[in-house]
Amino acid sequence: DQQVKQNSPSLSVQEGRISILNCDYTNSMFDYFLWYKKYPAEGPTFLISISSIKDKNEDGRFTVFLNKSAKHLSLHIVPSQPGDSAVYFCAASGFNRDDKIIFGKGTRLHILP
Amino acid sequence: DTEVTQTPKHLVMGMTNKKSLKCEQHMGHRAMYWYKQKAKKPPELMFVYSYEKLSINESVPSRFSPECPNSSLLNLHLHALQPEDSALYLCASSREIPPTTEAFFGQGTRLTVV
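^ Those are the sequences you sent over. The predicted structure of the assembly is below.
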C-alpha cells in the first residue's frame, strides 16, 4: 500500500515556465514533508520541506504548498531552468517517532529549451 | 562540510564474496540510514541507526549486516548476496530522528552481484 503517491511518472515543461509537481499521501499521521531531487547515478539531494503546521514554504525558485484536508502537496518551480531536469521525490515522515522517510515513486521532470 | 561520503562508488562482487560498503559524515548527525534503490524505483529504507544503535531493521535479509563503529561511520557488510541484490545503495544522515530536518544523502554505491 503506497502511502506517498506521485501519480505523474513524468512531466515536460518549457524553460522559463512554472513546473508543478504533485504528491498525495494517505497517512494522516505524517507531519513533515520533503522534496528531493535526484540526478542519474547520484544520491537524492534535499530541496525543500514543510511542516504540517504550515501551508506554504518558499525558498528561492522553489515553493511547496500543503493542503492537509486534501492530503496533497505540490512543488512549484518558477522559473524552470534546464538544470531542473531530474527526478523529483516527494517524501513524508511521521509524528509518531517512526524514524522513517517514506518516498513516493518520483516524477521525472524534463525542462524543454 | 555538508557531505555524506560513500565508498566505493562501484562494486562488482560474486555470490560467494564478502565485501563492505562504507559511509562517513562529519556533520555531527546522530541518525544514519541505509537505503536500497533499484532502477526507476524510490529509495527503500533498510536500516536506521540512532546514536550508534540500530533502531530500525526493515526485515532485511541477514546477508546484509550493518555496523556503526562510531557517530561518523556507518558500514554495510555484504555476504553471500544474490544477483537480485544488485542496486544503488544509499547512505543518509540527519540531525535527529524522526527526520524532521532534511536527510543528507551520499552519492551511493552501485553494486552488481554476478
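The CA atoms of residues 32 and 51 of chain A lie 5 Å apart. The mean pLDDT of chain A is 91.

Shout if you want it in another format.
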